[in-house]
């Protein structure tokens, strides 16, 4: 078989029952959309060449990505041959995209612009940096006249850090941002993010890495430390939204966040890829309410790709559980389109399982559900 006929990757799968990590060679055949898997340890076929029931998206085939094949979440850890490396690395450059405090209220709109421009958002975290953390991130500028002003500003409110993936991602993101000075951006690049959301040269909406080495270092700062920097969930008087994988994979997460930010405060958010054990544990309360078929379908959907967990707070300090549940609408989007046509599920849901968003049902469960994602999953290293 010629190398040109297929792409080859090294993948890992963690068996949630035994805790054993399995390594597979994963082959993807672009022409037929078929896949094939070989168990590396036992040197035998695990999955013979077949087209999965749900096609693997070729744009997700890069190192660091997670793909789902027959309910197994495979993390791509390396390229398996030089042909695949040479063909795919150029298509999957990574950069840090960061929404700064002055533009955080426009996070949904900026995230939507990112998706519309062809980026994959592989990681996402909302943070609030301490002064010391901001100084560490901008250590290269230490001693410069603007250093204190910059670090005061960057620790003044919430930010959103993202790992963006695209061909030529560094240059593509900086082009989408526009000139550093927001006033210059409005003159020279009126469609850029800084033209729309920036104020001046310092309050300029977003940050972007300027080179591959810098991108790797900056991504490591936000996504490679344990415990992670900038933990900012409130942990009380909040509720939880989960933007489901079908919307994340369709690039609609920004639209949903924008709808949420029109009414509520986003106090924390993070992208997660859940396994079946974790998803079933999170949905435990529904086991006695839904049929086994519906419950398993909900678990399958929540593990079919990345989701975005969002801690939601009321702007006036009230408990947001009931009012946010009203914004989400009925669980069945078809019913929502009749009774609450402007609700999130009516606007973004497809059916009762792929209904766009999960929301907390009971007032007492709001902080508990939020803490499951922002405290428990963090502590066990599942984020």
Automatic annotation (TrEMBL):
GO molecular function ontology, one term from the record: hydrolase activity
InterPro entries xref list: DM10_dom (IPR006602), NDK-like_dom (IPR034907), NDK-like_dom_sf (IPR036850), NDPK7 (IPR011410), NDPk7B (IPR037993), Nucleoside_diP_kinase (IPR001564), Nucleoside_diP_kinase_AS (IPR023005)
Catalytic activity: a 2'-deoxyribonucleoside 5'-diphosphate + ATP = a 2'-deoxyribonucleoside 5'-triphosphate + ADP; a ribonucleoside 5'-diphosphate + ATP = a ribonucleoside 5'-triphosphate + ADP
Active site: 207, 358
Organism phylogeny: Eukaryota, Viridiplantae, Chlorophyta, core chlorophytes, Chlorophyceae
Biological process according to GO: CTP biosynthetic process; GTP biosynthetic process; UTP biosynthetic process
A cellular component annotation (GO) from this entry: axonemal microtubule
Organism of this sequence: Chlamydomonas leiostraca
Enzyme Commission number: 2.7.4.6
Enzyme kind, highest EC tier: transferase
Keyword Glycoprotein: no
Family that this chain belongs to: Belongs to the NDK family.
Subcellular location, principal: other
Membrane-spanning ranges: none
Record domain DM10: where: 3-92
Name of this protein: Nucleoside diphosphate kinase
Cell compartment(s), UniProt: Cell projection, Cilium; Cytoplasm, Cytoskeleton
């Amino acid at each position: 078989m010629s190398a040109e006929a297929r792409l080859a990757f090294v993948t890992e799968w963690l068996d949630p029952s035994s805790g054993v990590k399995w390594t597979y060679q994963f082959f993807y055949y672009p022409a037929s959309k078929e896949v094939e898997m070989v168990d590396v340890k036992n040197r035998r076929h695990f999955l013979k060449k077949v087209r999965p029931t749900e096609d693997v998206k070729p744009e997700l085939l890069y190192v660091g990505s997670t793909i789902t094949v027959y309910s197994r979440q495979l993390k791509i850890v390396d390229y398996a041959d030089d042909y695949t490396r040479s063909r795919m690395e150029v298509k999957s450059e990574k950069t840090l995209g960061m929404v700064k405090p002055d533009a955080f209220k426009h996070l949904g709109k900026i995230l939507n612009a990112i998706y519309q421009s062809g980026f994959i958002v592989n990681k996402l975290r909302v943070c609030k940096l301490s002064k010391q953390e901001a100084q560490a991130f901008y250590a290269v500028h230490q001693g410069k006249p603007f250093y204190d002003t910059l670090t005061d500003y960057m620790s003044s409110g919430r930010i959103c850090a993202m790992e963006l993936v695209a061909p030529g991602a560094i240059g593509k993101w900086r082009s989408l941002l526009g000139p550093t000075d927001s006033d210059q951006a409005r003159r020279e690049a009126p469609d850029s993010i800084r033209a729309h959301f920036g104020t001046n040269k310092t309050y300029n909406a977003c940050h972007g890495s300027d080179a591959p080495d810098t991108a790797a270092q900056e991504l490591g700062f936000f996504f490679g430390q344990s415990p992670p920097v900038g933990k900012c969930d409130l942990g009380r008087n909040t509720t939880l939204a989960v933007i489901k994988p079908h919307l994340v994979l369709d690039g609609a997460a920004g639209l949903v966040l924008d709808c949420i930010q029109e009414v509520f405060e986003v106090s924390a958010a993070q992208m997660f890829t859940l396994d079946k054990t974790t998803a079933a544990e999170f949905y435990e309360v529904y086991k006695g309410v839904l049929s086994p078929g519906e419950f398993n379908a909900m678990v399958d959907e929540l593990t079919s790709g990345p989701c975005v967990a969002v801690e939601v707070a009321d702007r006036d300090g009230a408990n947001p559980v009931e009012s946010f549940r009203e914004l989400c609408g009925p669980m069945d989007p078809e019913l929502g389109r009749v009774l609450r046509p402007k609700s999130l599920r009516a606007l973004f849901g497809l059916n009762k399982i792929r209904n766009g968003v999960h929301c907390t049902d009971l007032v007492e469960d709001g902080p508990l559900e939020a803490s499951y994602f922002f405290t428990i999953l963090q502590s066990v290293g599942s984020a």
